[in-house]
From TrEMBL:
This is Probable phosphoketolase. One of its GO terms (molecular function) is aldehyde-lyase activity. It comes from Candidatus Thiodictyon syntrophicum. Keywords: Lyase, Thiamine pyrophosphate. Residues 593-794 form the Xylulose 5-phosphate/Fructose 6-phosphate phosphoketolase C-terminal domain. It comes from the Bacteria. Its cofactor is thiamine diphosphate. InterPro entries: Phosphoketolase, THDP-binding, Transketo_C/PFOR_II, Xul5P/Fru6P_PKetolase, Xul5P/Fru6P_PKetolase_C, Xul5P/Fru6P_PKetolase_CS, Xul5P/Fru6P_PKetolase_N. Residues 16-375 form the Xylulose 5-phosphate/Fructose 6-phosphate phosphoketolase N-terminal domain. The lineage of its organism: Bacteria, Pseudomonadati, Pseudomonadota, Gammaproteobacteria, Chromatiales. HAMAP family: Phosphoketolase. The keyword DNA-binding does not apply. It is an enzyme of class 4 (lyase). Its EC number is 4.1.2.-.
Amino acid sequence: MTAQQPDSTTPDPLSADLLRKMNAYWRACNYLAAGMIYLRDNPLLREPLQEAHIKERLLGHWGASPGLSFIWVHMNRIIRAQNQEAIFLAGPGHGAPGVLAPIYLEGTYSEVYPNKSEDEEGLQAFFKQFSFPGGIGSHCTPETPGSIHEGGELGYSISHAFGAAFDNPNLLVVVAVGDGESETGPLATSWHSSKFLNPIRDGAVLPVLHLNGYKINNPTLLARIPNEELASLMRGYGWTPHFVEGDDPLTMHQLMAATLDRCLGEIHGIQQAARTSGEATRGHWPMIVLRSPKGWTGPKEVDGHRVEGFWRAHQVPLAGLHNNPAHLKQLEDWLRSYKPEELFDDAGRLIPELKELAPTGNLRMSASPHANGGILRRALRMPDFRTYAADVGTPGTTRAMNTKPLGAMLRDIMADNMRNFRVFGPDENSSNKLDAIYAVSKKLWLCDYKPEDADGGELAPDGRVLEMLSEHTLEGWYEGYLLTGRHGFFATYEAFVHVIDSMYNQHAKWLAICNEIPWRAPVSSLNLLITSTVWRQDHNGFTHQDPGFLDVVVNKNPHVTRIYLPPDVNCLLSTADHCLRSMNNINVIVCDKQDHLQYLSMDEAVKHCTKGLGIWEWASNDQGAEPDVVMVGCGDIPTKEALAATAMLREAFADIKIRFVNVVDLFRMQPAGEHPHGLSDADFDSIFTKNRPIIFNFHGYPWLIHRLAYRRTNHANLHVRGYKEKGNINTPLELAISNEIDRFSLAIDVINRVPRLQATGAHVKQRLRDLQIEARAYAFENGIDKPEFDQWTWPL
């Protein structure tokens, strides 16, 4: 592999002495990276290597590690020379040894974990814990100081980096992008993030596209196209690419140092021009393409097969060491090639002349407070959510758009928190009735403008509302923003929230581990509003009808997950206020944006949301008696239909006793021992009874409620109605009928399950069936629901 100069006129920036030291520091990193994969004892090879020193199970990834530590070592020089605040994100999480090694060498790891001290004993403990039971995983997990991104080729590294850079004007986020990772959809879209970086108020992101040529056992696409084509691709995205490539370490050090100097000069030039003029324009930011061999400096061949520079270097280059003396000897030769005796003193500490190459204090990337964002987090200045309340007189008789007052509340939150709060949404904030926020902050836009954009475009170079038609990129920005100590709110259509399923999963796992790490300060919760919901997708049809994200949410750690289904405006406002004040949770709020019936005054809503579920006395008539049936609404449309069914039943059967329950906090359905919000068995039995039929009308898939409540006393009498994958271009009521969550189906269900009504209710059932048929026929004929059904209000 030949080396390419970044600029033929650039002299070597490293003196001979500094070059020697930096290469030695990098050798120490590579020694540690290999050591943590293989060694459980004899950490400095002060005796001949034996099988007893080797871990029984060899887990970890060597291939990307040398390149990652190479970038880290060079960033340390920049940080020291310029007092530059910086953090480091490793996109290829499979190269974690290359990140853990410099973190240990600069002392942060020992500060956070004193038993991993900077001596021979601590080094042994550091090696043994890696990919070992009771230790740490093989990615840049939450246990890794300085990490806000676990990596692992899911494609979120660049979007996380930009989230960290937003509103951090002095921060440089260096992100190593794996070439395998670059084949993912989220990563490909995230290159556009540079168009949303305001050089006046934001920091900078420096991507280093690390092309080592291979994935697990295949070539990578970007490594197999010519530099000219790759440069055109990056320029097309709006970046200015710089190439550093080769395999000779000393030459590569000089090339990397010169290129970093040039890139930092370009970054500071863009920022200075904008900050001096006060005009924020889109910068063509620099990025680096680093081509180095996979498994650089490792074994070149094993058993006659190429390893360095090939996919066989991806994980463990030398396996089967036990009962294989030849491999054991090759491993020892490899480890000794780094000359650990020259790098560590008698006590096992990095020698002083190398130790001084690292930054100190919070300038160390591993110790940056930006990578432990809870330290920097400041509580939001919050308005009184009660001032946005809907005026509710008689319950169930007035209508309002549920999300519109929330938009006004978000507007005022943003106005009072213009440096640490942003709103994210994929081109949908106006559609979701949150457009009041534009009164204080437009949509961020740094691309070209057209005259017509002034007419309702709501675009501005200093906007704080981030809209892009990529849920992946938005979610990544949002997570990076939260993890570095700020706050935000994300609204998206229910049909498309599945796009970020894997991102939700990873963030939930990250938070769950953070809850177990004392030095990780809590960060603001991720608040996700799901709107444009399944029951109001009559215009988009079947493909847009999917409430299944809730099933995904329930899979994750109960100490992190929260699901709320507020039935009206005031419950939504109370819920949003609670969520925006919370920490270390993922709060999923499901609430449709259209006109809906309003039920509770603000005082009633606060009490109801605080309880999470409760009996609506005004809709119940079982006071002082046992109910014949418990009718439950969970979600806005299911609540309306359950109330309508209750009204019809009470009109048809004068003596029927119905208890009406509404559920806001879905996890109240679980036992207290399974979720922090779970209701005690005694309270659950009191509300839902021990032996009466429960008709539960649910927003999502019906089996989810059974999953949550299967251990409850009265589960055998729990009958859940929800979405059953039946839909098309339906009117709202017709869609409800198709899935049997409509008022007629619910009322018939009650008649079928209350023993004394099974015979006497036959005539009522027939009338209900007739009404149901009439509703369908009217919709097919007129394209809308019959007004008496659509505009129904609570009559009692």
